[in-house]
Amino acid sequence: MTPFHQVTGVAAPMLAPNVDTDVIMPKMFLKGVDRSGLGEGTFNLLRFSDGKPNPDFILNQDGYRDASFLVVGPNFGCGSSREHAVWGLQQLGIRALIGTTFAGIFNDNCANNGLLTISLDPAVVSELATVVADDARNDLTIDLAAQTIRFDRGHRAIAFDIEPDRKEAFLTGRDFIASTLVFADDIRVFETRHRAENPWIA
Fold first, then answer.
1. Is the dihedral of CA 180, 183, 184, 187 positive or negative?
2. What is the pLDDT of residue 116?
3. In 3D, which of 50, 51, 45 has the Cα closest to residue 88?
4. Alpha helices, DSSP H only, in the chain?
5. What 8-state DSSP symbol labels residue 191?
6. CA distances from 41 to 52, 105, 156, 174 (A)
7. Which residues of 165-186 are buried (b: 16+ CB within 10 A; e: fewer)?
8. What is the pLDDT of residues 103-127, one digit of tens each?
9. Which of 34, 60, 71, 180 has the most CB within a 10 Å radius?
């Protein structure tokens, strides 16, 4: 995973509730044998109409085309468990999602792949969305170590909570396997001792 420390970028408001994984990554983009091309698939049916960019979709509008963050509505990522939705968002350049609630499996997929999700009170999300809807004030900075979001040209800040283990994983860029390998020497010591103490085990 790419470590996440302090990231500054444009935030786009997408406040529709219950945006499911089929909207994020339509099923026609699940046919590949690898992860290539998923950026094109992300929000494809919203981003394009008759093969042309849909001017009404926020990520096609001036000031939002290179968004790093999405301010999203409740229950974002519901529906199927397709991990492609997370991979596609990352290929599109999205580093974090800010909302009230996220679907459970989707939220876990985000954590396992390095896409930060931040849950805030509805009133705070609404306030943040109102600010970033103004393309003159749509940049923000997420400081994971400090657990803050600075917005409105840096004049305001919001604190957020995150599980300590998840925070550590994002800061170090370690997935589950890499986190386990931190203890590789201890594991080898245990294996050697266990074999010596239990020679009947093949």
1. negative
2. 98
3. 45
4. 21-24, 38-41, 44-47, 84-91, 104-113, 122-132, 164-172, 176-181, 184-197
5. H
6. 14, 20, 35, 27
7. ebbebbeeebeeeeeeeeeeee
8. 999 999 999 999 999 999 999 999 9
9. 71
User: Which pLDDT belongs to residue 18?
Assistant: 98
Residues 173 and 114: their CA atoms lie apart, in Å, by 7
The secondary structure of residue 7, as a DSSP letter, is E
> What DSSP character marks residue 29?
G
Q: Which residue, among 48, 43, 51, 32, has the nearest Cα to 67 in the 3D structure?
A: 43
Q: What is the DSSP string of 107-141?
A: HHHHHHHT-EEEE--HHHHHHHHHHHTSTTS-EEE
Sheet holding 6-14, edge to edge: 116-119, 96-99, 69-72, 6-14, 139-143, 148-151, 156-159
CA-CA distance, 74 to 72, in Å (whole number)?
7
pTM of the predicted model over 0.90: no
Gyration radius from the chain CA atoms: 20
